[in-house]
UniProtKB/TrEMBL annotation, chains A, B:
<keyword id="KW-0808">Transferase</keyword>
<dbReference type="Pfam" id="PF00480">
    <property type="entry name" value="ROK"/>
</dbReference>
<keyword id="KW-0418">Kinase</keyword>
<dbReference type="InterPro" id="IPR036388">
    <property type="entry name" value="WH-like_DNA-bd_sf"/>
</dbReference>
<dbReference type="InterPro" id="IPR000600">
    <property type="entry name" value="ROK"/>
</dbReference>
<dbReference type="InterPro" id="IPR043129">
    <property type="entry name" value="ATPase_NBD"/>
</dbReference>
<comment type="similarity">
    <text>Belongs to the ROK (NagC/XylR) family.</text>
</comment>
<dbReference type="GO" id="GO:0016301">
    <property type="term" value="F:kinase activity"/>
</dbReference>
<protein>
    <submittedName>
        <fullName>Putative NBD/HSP70 family sugar kinase</fullName>
    </submittedName>
</protein>
<dbReference type="InterPro" id="IPR049874">
    <property type="entry name" value="ROK_cs"/>
</dbReference>
<dbReference type="InterPro" id="IPR036390">
    <property type="entry name" value="WH_DNA-bd_sf"/>
</dbReference>
Length: 401, 401
DNA sequence: ATATAATTAAATCAACTTGATTTGTTTTCT
DNA sequence: AGAAAACAAATCAAGTTGATTTAATTATAT
């Protein structure tokens, strides 16, 4: 047996790549910064920063703003991210809808397309997704050299026997299907695939309420329920890419039966599907989140479900806080924002946990900023994140083929 | 407001430090390796490795072994970790016992001391711990320049209002007490403090059953219950150093009352304390784990507790698997090894989770290798780990004061 | 005028890489 | 059996890269 591949070493080239990312990240989280300010922030020398900034400006990733007068000394030239320095395509596939967007580096949507689907199989979905990507690029024209990649979000979990394709919250027929490879083959563009919760987490981290945070959990309430984990500045995906699939954690032993074979799973209480069933909405397979929004407007018609859902949700938050000690828990997903806000307002009092400390700068629970498009926007953020975020991987020399 | 400190950049010095760690880690996980083999494993050039190995050998961290003949070409000189290249002091404080060890780089215990305590306050414990450290160094003499530091393990959580000092499983009076600083002041040696579960996890990762793993969870069953999280090659401690405090997650809504104010917390079922209470052992504050070992030998006297504990334990494992998708879950703690093994044998069938896949190389649950000294050994491993493990932090230039 | 802060330029330095060379075996050929 | 060839490991020396240092320059406020 050959020795297992170890953590790789690094060299100047990798180091530079890291430093470039560090510069971008500093500006992204702080807003426009002068070279001198970046140097202070990153502990690098002003000369190094000057070189890197010059290079990034030449590549149009950064752009200079008006000089900042009013202070002593030579006036500083602040640099900010150039939105048109790069573009990204985000795709999202769910039970009833396929959505695609093009965003620029600032996360602004420059084109958007949606198409209805009905619990699609891979054979149905792949050509459709490729077509959406193509249509998006016809709709919004830009220098193809500036396209960073395609990010795709879809419901997890991936490749779990007896779990991926079971029950009403999973998409059928996707077990073992190599989504990223296939889509990459069809489009000729590099593709990253993540589950919707993870994608949403990245979106909130790059552009939303989690912009400055080092560790947080995104609780994605969709057809089912999942968590996106951002820990110590890194996305955590798990050893088999399935971290955060907490929809099937048990919150009520002996409770409602679940498609996974257990009883009392979290997503039997907190999910769109659970809401539809609890509220006895006909044909839950084809119900839409807007229906809940409508009910919300209509007095307390949601109450029956909220009462059932709120304590399981509290338990889930409590468990995540205890297990991961995040700076905050962000709530979002396909559930309409109004409903999310209703749930959030009903959470008080949260259970005691390690998050129960007065030395907090962020509330224990936040509502996500991106609304119903969270996961497409997050999907589009994936390539941007992987190209610009400082990560441990970057410092490691790639093993040659 | 000054801009928040960003992720720092890197330079040659940091890069070298990383590469040194990479070399050590490669040998640690693979056993003795020749320079050429290290180069292949780390993707660095043979020349670079040659330089680093030479340096590490000069510092006595590595030592050459007999050349390896029998193959073609010039025979390789394998290098292995020199156990006497460094030493570490591990301290462990619990309700009834303070233990200290000196280990060498290979994790072998070279001296051990234990002293009884009774739910000690900081004022009582700090001088005692300092004294243990001093006595250890009188007992086993070595070059003080080779002492990497003191690692200390104690029950968490840290600094949580209404949680740290509440209930029979927490140590009273430690809220806000700066343990590491104080012990460092008393001994003049750098000190790292972690909760016992985290320490144990590091121990298993360096020397135990988790030696080669990138992501695993250590479930520490002690007076209470906690988890140590090792994710993607890094220790995850949480934003306030309290990750893994899952003893207070709810496994039975409306179940047994807990000191934290909730009902049905995990550690009310799975912990030494829970076992003592369930088995109606008199004076649980001063009972000892050996008592359970004795009961175990005595037929099925533990059965009443095992029946109560096993499903909450299953739930906890299920939740951890779903949330973190680790390669495995390691079971250990102060609970006697025999009892841990009994629990492990009773876990089957585990609940369905993302870990339920046939493509596994490691069982879903393992019993820790270190036995009852897990957390002291883990504590001693802390300074070794932080000095030798490749980590993201290492690449970041420290901000000057 | 002077102090101050930002930026730039040139020279220096540390660590990795490259390519050629040396070394000590094993294998193959005569 | 002895010599030559093949081979892999290790070393040497020169070259490259990118961060740092030092010194100078610039633009502003006091």
């Amino acid at each position: 047996m050959p020795p297992r591949k170890a953590i790789a070493g690094t060299n100047l080239e990798q180091a530079k790549s890291h430093n470039r990312r560090v510069v971008i990240e500093a500006i992204r989280t702080n807003g426009a910064l002068s070279r001198a300010a970046i140097a202070r922030l990153t502990a690098l020398s002003t000369q190094t920063i000057s070189n890197i900034v010059e290079e990034l400006e030449r590549e149009q990733l950064l752009r200079a703003q008006a000089t900042l007068k009013g202070a002593r000394g030579q006036p500083a030239v602040p640099y900010s991210i150039n939105p048109d320095g790069g573009y990204s395509i985000g795709l999202q596939l769910d039970h009833q809808l396929a959505v695609g967007v093009i965003t620029d580096l600032s996360g602004t949507v420059r084109a958007r397309i949606e198409r209805p689907v009905d619990r699609p199989t891979p054979a149905q979905a792949m050509p459709l997704l490729a077509a959406i990507a193509g249509d998006l690029m016809r709709k919004f024209r830009f220098d193809r050299g500036r396209l960073l990649g395609i990010g795709m979000a879809m419901p997890g979990p991936f490749d779990v026997e007896g779990m991926t394709s079971v029950g009403p919250t999973a998409l059928p027929g996707w077990q073992d299907f190599p989504v990223a490879e296939e889509l990459q083959r069809l489009t000729g563009i590099p593709v990253t695939v993540e589950n919707d919760a993870t994608a949403a987490a990245i979106g909130e981290r790059l552009y939303g309420v989690a912009r400055n945070l080092g560790s947080f959990v995104y609780l994605f309430i969709g057809t089912g329920l999942g968590a996106g984990l951002f820990l110590d500045g890194h996305l955590y995906k798990g050893s088999r890419h399935n971290a955060g699939e907490i929809g099937h954690m048990i919150v009520k032993p002996g409770g409602l039966e679940c498609g996974c074979g257990k009883r009392g799973c979290l997503e039997r209480y907190v999910s769109l599907r659970a809401a539809y069933e609890c509220l006895e909405i006909p044909d839950p397979d084809h119900a839409s989140p807007e229906l809940l929004q409508a009910l919300l407007a209509n007095g307390d018609s949601l109450e029956a479900w909220v009462v059932q859902a709120i304590d399981p949700l509290r338990q889930a938050i409590n468990m995540l806080e205890l297990a991961l000690d995040p700076e905050t828990v962000v709530l979002g997903g396909f559930m309409p924002v109004g409903v999310i806000e209703l749930l959030a307002s009903r959470l008080d009092p949260l259970y005691l946990s390690v998050s129960s400390t007065s030395a907090r700068t962020v509330p224990r629970v936040l509502v996500g900023a991106a609304g119903k498009d969270t996961s497409v926007l997050g999907a589009a953020a994936l390539p941007i994140f992987s190209e610009t975020n400082p990560q441990f991987d970057v410092l490691q020399k790639p093993h040659s083929a």
